[in-house]
Amino acid sequence: LWQISRTVRADYQGARMRILTRLAPGLSGLALLGGAPAFAQAPVMKDYSWTEMRAEVVTAGAEVTKEGESGKSHFLTVKDDTGLIFGIYGFECDSVTQRCRGADFIASFTLKDPSQADAVLNTLDYAAVGDYRDDEGHVKISRYVIFDGGITQENLQTNITVFLSLANQTWDKLDADKLL
Fold this sequence. Notes:
Structural class: alpha+beta
Helix content: 40-55%
Shape: globular
Number of strands: 8
């Protein structure tokens, strides 16, 4: 009985060694793959310069018509291919490098009757943008883009596209309702 047990154990250990010997090269190959991503990662922007933001806006099919300062915020005034005029305001900007970590895209609509602003806001329901009115009764649509931790250029373009789509839908709705 002792002889059988010793033979089984030896066969078991030999089989285990053969399995490990055959797996080891494959496992080391997997370890090498584990160190590198399986796909190329797009570079991320952790902040932006105004030159870079202008280039992104132009890539989205819009035209920068003005650049300036409003209080402590740097801004661009932009016109898209439909004629919509909107602003991009920089936030969390470094005073030395002028690189910013936040961008607020804002479209403002002047109503014929500013007292209707609250009623208009009740008809707008877009989860991807904020809507509000200012003290003069202008209805505004905004989308704030945060660069903290990084954002790809593709994601920035998507944010611009979403903002433009919803701002233009708002403009079309207000125009169709003869509120502008």
